[in-house]
Amino acid sequence: MRPLLAVSTAIDWLNEKVGNVCNVLVLAACLVSAVNAMIRYAFSYSSNSWLETQWYMFAVVVMFGSSYTFKRNEHVRVEILYLMLSERGQLWLDLIGTLVFLVPACLLLSYLSWAMFYNSFIIGEMSNNAGGLLRWPIKFVLPAGFFMVALQGVSEAIKRAAALRGEVTIDAKYERPTQ
């Protein structure tokens, strides 16, 4: 189980770094939005590329921030049944739900969205708006984001399996295994 926990730690580290980038992107999107609005009202000038840049940053925050949110156990969970279970029951429910539903669904969505990105990349798709940006980089965010959530799901499954075996305990706030 120790090698798997090392893999889980590596996945957690990666998603922590991705989350830090997303935190910066939230600030950057706010700044771009504010500057764009000021320039538009002060100088009657606006650019579609700035508007699309905001949209792209928001898409990155949503798609990549979801794996970071999952890592920190701040995701939405239907807790009606969950809270009635013992700690061991919660671990089992998390493990089964992650392996049966979350990881397969995210991998399927990543696979299905890959063709959309790839076709856009091959043709060098551009925005239809004047001064717009390339579309394929943002279309890559969709399969990559779903893959990152699936990867974090694998990490969470490893931690739950180790906790069920009594090898680690789970810090409820940040979902970190403690020795």
How does the SSE layout of this entry go?
Blueprint: H1 2-43, H2 48-71, H3 79-82, H4 87-123, H5 136-164, E1 169-171, E2 176-178
Antiparallel strand pairs: 1-2
Helix pairs in contact: 1-2, 1-5, 2-5, 4-5
Would you give an account of this structure?
It is a single chain. The longest helix is centred in the first third of the chain and has 42 residues, at 2-43. Helix 1 (2-43) runs antiparallel to helix 2, helix 1 (2-43) packs antiparallel against helix 5 and helix 2 packs parallel to helix 5 (136-164). The protein has one domain. The protein is 76% helix and 3% strand. It has 5 helices and 2 strands. The protein has a two-stranded antiparallel ribbon.
Features:
76% helix; mainly alpha; 179 residues; two-stranded antiparallel sheet
What sequence of helices (H) and strands (E) makes up the elements?
A: HHHHHEE
Number of strands: 2
Radius of gyration: 20 Å
> What is the helix tally?
5
Portion in strands: under 5%
- In the sheet with the most strands, the strands line up as 1-2
Shape label:
elongated
Query: What profile does the largest beta sheet have?
Result: 2 strands, antiparallel
The mean pLDDT is 88
Number of domains: 1
Q: Which parts are unreliable, with pLDDT below 50 for 5 consecutive residues or more?
A: none
In helices, the fraction of residues equals over 70%
Structural class: mainly alpha
Distance between the termini: 12 Å
